[in-house]
Amino acid sequence: MIKRSDVARLLDSIEDSAGPVAADAALCIARSVSNWFATRNDDYIAPFTKGMRRSNPKERARERVLGDDKLRAIWKQAEANGIFGAFVRMLLLTGQRLTKVASMRWEDISEDGVWTIPGEKRQKGTAGKLKFSNAALEIIHAQPRMGSNPHVFAGRKQAPWKPLLELRHREEKL
Prior knowledge:
Layout: H1 4-18, H2 20-38, H3 57-60, H4 68-79, H5 82-94, H6 98-102, E1 114-116, E2 129-131, H7 134-142, H8 162-173
Antiparallel strand pairs: 1-2
């Protein structure tokens, strides 16, 4: 049987070699496996307690605020970089998540420039409608329609453009 002292030694070792965030990641995985096993075994007692975490996520949280000069520099670079630049400018103009803009569909944009943002099953009711600015509409109307692909930032096989899918995959890992 695994004891709390075993878990503490393991976390100490991971923290010493890879840092407190890595130890917290290992703790999360071990706790998940333990919880899964506890649902299938009447006699199992999980060795995890509150306070085993090695770092405070709130202390590690970054503020992601860009100043006007940085925003201007990003905008200028984005203007010169085709579909990816258009995508970056849409992120800046809408303030929406990368995955939402990447999956934007033509059918979700009304004639009067309102984007109906589809919600996901697990979302907290954040989906809604967004009225595009003239600058955003110019970017959207500049995107070519790729056959029957429904996405504004289109890729192959009825999917968003591949680099956007790769970004979305990276974002999901974070």
